[in-house]
């Protein structure tokens, strides 16, 4: 649905947070009001634990409310970012929440949310089917700032937009943990591989770093570290190309989406590119500047003609340990450990294929919906007879002699169970069909993949950045924080004529808030008359990119 409506995955997460918070708020108001009324009428102990034969089941409503609150609390940033696995596994209580909601609200109210349930269930099944396909790590680069660049093979037919991301699982570290990471490569440049970068700041990422390091130091070299991938997810189109100029602000590991954007801009396949690109990169230590190494050739080589200017701010150190004075010298002396783990055959054996086509998805939705309706009608007809008849098929007469319908009250949980059973069967059939269709796709594409001429990603020698005879335009500011208003004013002075500027930011919330505040305070014009009355040269268009969920 997001691909169809061209909604970014990160934006959908934001909408999910808003709607989820609203749902919990109104559920608290509803549940709290009911409990308050029962308390003042002295019926709370009698009503709260009662499982009604017909009508609303109050204890199910209490279970749904408590489960929703638990999911909401564990999704707060303080818990989600430090204990992602707690947030991830607790969120699977949505099954308990929805089943309890069905028993509490009844089947008639549940039909209002059933379409969304169908789309969610199908999406979950498709992600499970996709994640069962195995890939492998072709190579890895270990940076001194405890960051890792991982390269995995992909189908050359798989295209993704810059700033996309994937969910990654490495069974060697944990069979059940999945984590999102930004893609730093460009499908326009790297046809047969996909690269991500992770900063090792948690237990899982540190374990990945240690496993890769062990593989490099082991005498019996480990090949084919298996990984599982979901995605890529991200914008359906390259939206930033519509701007005349780009103003990029990154904090720490928030640089990763911009690495893919700059690689896309450096690609010669683009007819239209921004005229000027300003990148503001704030880090705590000099070692964190190593995250710029994947685009070092783009930064310093004039043949790409990006008109890129980089301002780096190192906030917590006063001087580099290696005595360098320029960004190029520092990156040239940076230590990177490159490790090759895969073989040429792995490009065709373990490619990431990505999401399926809309036609494929429409077929799967149709199969699932028809299965659900068939079982719902059949089971309802069998377990919920509408009227009781005698052996001759004539309606029983009431004692008074009047003809009346003798309809027995069926427990409310019976139609609820029928909905659950029909839904589970339909989703299972959809998953089975998805598995068959995916296997047919792999079998069909196997001959093409085996004959594909593999173009490996460019070999980068991180220790030999040859000096280029041009003026060093990139700046390093030590012990300072970026003054965004001054940088933007300087950027505006260098523009020729009026232009639209895409302001993209990725990093901690404090960085995003600072950039958003600057954009709100910056004077804007909305038409020809405003342009004539003002001396402004640009309109700012703010976009926030997420590097974590």
From TrEMBL:
Primary residence: membrane
Localization per record: Membrane
Protein name: Riboflavin synthase-like beta-barrel
Keywords from the UniProt entry: Membrane, Oxidoreductase, Transmembrane, Transmembrane helix
Transmembrane intervals: 15-37, 57-74, 86-103, 109-126, 358-384, 417-437
GO molecular function: ferric-chelate reductase activity
Key word Nuclease present: no
Segments forming domain FAD-binding FR-type: 121-239
Topology in the lipid bilayer: Multi-pass membrane protein
Pfam families, per the entry: FAD_binding_8, Ferric_reduct, NAD_binding_6
Entry-linked CDD domains: NOX_Duox_like_FAD_NADP
Entry GO terms, CC: plasma membrane
């Amino acid at each position: 649905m997001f691909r169809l409506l061209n909604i970014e995955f990160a934006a959908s997460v934001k909408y999910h947070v808003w709607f989820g918070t609203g749902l919990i708020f109104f559920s608290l108001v509803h549940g709290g009001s009911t409990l308050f009324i029962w308390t003042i009428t002295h019926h709370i102990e009698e009503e709260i634990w009662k499982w009604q034969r017909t009508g609303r089941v109050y204890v199910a409503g209490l279970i749904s409310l408590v489960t929703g609150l638990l999911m909401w609390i564990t999704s707060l940033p303080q818990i989600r970012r430090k204990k992602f696995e707690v947030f991830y596994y607790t969120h699977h209580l949505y099954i308990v929440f929805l089943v309890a909601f069905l028993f509490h609200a009844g089947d008639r109210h549940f039909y209002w949310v059933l379409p969304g349930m169908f789309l969610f269930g199908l999406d979950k099944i498709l992600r499970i089917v996709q994640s069962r396909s195995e890939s492998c790590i072709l190579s890895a680069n270990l940076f001194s700032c405890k960051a890792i660049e991982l390269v995995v093979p992909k189908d050359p037919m798989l295209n993704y937009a810059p700033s996309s991301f994937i969910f990654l699982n490495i069974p060697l570290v944990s069979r059940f943990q999945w984590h999102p990471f930004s893609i730093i490569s460009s499908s326009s440049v790297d046809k047969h591989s996909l690269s991500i970068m992770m900063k090792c700041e948690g237990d899982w990422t540190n374990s990945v770093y240690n496993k890769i390091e062990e593989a490099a130091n082991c005498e019996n070299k480990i090949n084919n570290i298996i990984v599982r991938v979901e995605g890529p997810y991200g914008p359906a189109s390259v939206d930033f190309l519509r701007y005349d100029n780009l103003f990029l602000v990154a904090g720490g590991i928030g640089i990763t989406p911009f690495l893919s954007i700059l690689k896309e801009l450096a690609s010669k396949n683009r007819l239209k590119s921004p005229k000027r690109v300003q990148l503001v990169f704030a880090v705590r230590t000099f070692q964190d500047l190593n995250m710029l190494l994947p685009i070092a050739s783009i930064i310093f080589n004039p043949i790409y003609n990006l008109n890129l200017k980089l301002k780096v701010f190192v906030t917590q150190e006063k001087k580099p340990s290696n005595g360098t004075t320029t960004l190029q010298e520092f990156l040239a002396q940076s230590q990177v450990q490159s490790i090759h783990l895969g073989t040429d055959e792995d490009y065709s054996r373990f490619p990431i294929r990505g999401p399926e086509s809309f036609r494929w998805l429409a077929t799967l939705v149709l199969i699932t919906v028809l299965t659900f309706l068939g079982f719902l009608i059949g089971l309802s007809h069998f377990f919920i007879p509408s009227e009781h008849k005698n052996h001759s098929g004539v309606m029983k007469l009431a004692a008074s002699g009047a003809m009346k319908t003798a309809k027995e009250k069926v427990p409310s949980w019976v139609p609820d169970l029928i909905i659950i059973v029909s839904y589970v069967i339909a989703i299972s059939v959809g998953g089975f069909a998805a598995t068959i269709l995916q296997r047919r796709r792999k079998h069909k594409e196997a001959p093409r993949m085996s004959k594909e001429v593999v173009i490996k990603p460019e070999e980068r020698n991180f220790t030999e950045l040859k000096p280029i005879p041009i003026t060093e335009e990139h700046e390093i500011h030590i012990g300072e924080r970026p003054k965004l208003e001054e940088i933007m004013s300087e950027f505006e002075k260098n523009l020729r004529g009026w232009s639209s500027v895409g302001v993209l930011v990725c990093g901690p919330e404090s960085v995003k808030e600072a950039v958003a505040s600057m954009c709100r305070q910056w004077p804007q014009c909305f038409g020809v008359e405003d342009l004539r009355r003002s001396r402004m040269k640009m309109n700012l268009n703010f976009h926030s990119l997420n590097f974590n969920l």
